[in-house]
Amino acid sequence: MIEQVPTTVLSDHPCHLGEGPTYDVTTDTAWWFDIREGKLFEAQLGGGSVRIHALGRMASALGRIDAERQLIVAEDGLYIRKLADGEMTLFCPLEADNPATRSNDCRVHQSGTFWIGTMGKKAEPKAGAIYALHRGKISTLFPGISIPNSICFSPDGATGYFTDTPRAVLYAVPLNPATGLPRGEPEVLLRHSGIGGLDGSVCDADGQIWNACWGAGRIDVYSPQGERLRSLGVPAKQASCPAFVGPDLSRLLVTSAWQDMDAAARAADPQAGCTFLLEAAARGRAEPDVKLA
C-alpha cells in the first residue's frame, strides 16, 4: 500500500529535470538542480524563500566544502562555487572532451570521497560511468553505465549502493569506510519490477534506503537486506531523488521532472517538475562535506 503522508510544495517552479537535492543543516538550506535548464535552486526552509541561480551549463549535484564554498558537478567538470557571489572556478575537468555526456546522480561518502555518475545526454547505452573523487584525484569505479542512480552509503560507510536504471537492479558494494572506495565487487541487493524505475536514493540513520521510483509517483523504502518496507506517495509521476531536510532531518525533500512528457501527459500530471516536502517521520542523516585534499 502507498502511504499518503502530509505533503507540501516547496517550489512550484516546474523543473524540466529536477535532481541532486542536498541539505546544509548548518544553515537550514536545501539545494537542488534542474539539470536540463542549467539551474541551481536554493531554499531557506525556515524562511520559505527560494532563489534560482543560472549556471550556464548542465549540472546535477553539489557537495559542501565548507561554510563559504561548494563543489558543483557539471557536464564538463567539477567547479568550486563561492556562496557569497556564485562565482565558479574549474577545479578539474571530467569528460570535458566528450560533449555527448553529462553528470547525473552523485553523493558524498562519510569519508569525504565524492561518488559521481555520468551518462549520455540522450541516455545512450553504456555511455557513462561512476567515478570517485578521493582527496582531489578522480578514479573510475564502474565504467559502461547507462543511467547511474541511487548512489548512497550505509551509516557506517562500509556499503555503497548504486543502480544502472535500465538494468532495474540495485547493487551493494563493500567499501573501506575510511576512504569510501570499493574493497570488493558489486552484488545484487534487489531487482525492481512493476511500474517505474529505480532513480535517486538516500540512506537514513538506520541504514534503510529511500528510493525515488521514477514513473510511479512514489518513494520506496528498503531494508539493508533489500526488503521493501514502505511506499510513500509523491504528487508527481516522475519523482527523481530524495534528501533528508529540517533541523531533525525527519522530513523528505523530493525533486521531480516533466522530461519527455507531451502536453497531454503534463496536463494529467499538473505538478510534474515541482519540488515537495513530505512529513515522512524519517531518521535521516546529515550530508558530509566533500574533502578536496
Automatic annotation (TrEMBL):
Residue runs in coiled coils: none
Gene3D superfamilies the UniProt entry points to: TolB, C-terminal domain
Segments forming domain SMP-30/Gluconolactonase/LRE-like region: 17-257
PANTHER family the UniProt entry points to: REGUCALCIN
Domain of life: Bacteria
InterPro entries the record matches: 6-blade_b-propeller_TolB-like, SGL, SMP-30
Family membership noted in the UniProt record: Belongs to the SMP-30/CGR1 family.
Positions of transmembrane segments: none
Listed Pfam families: SGL
Protein name per its UniProtKB record: SMP-30/gluconolactonase/LRE family protein
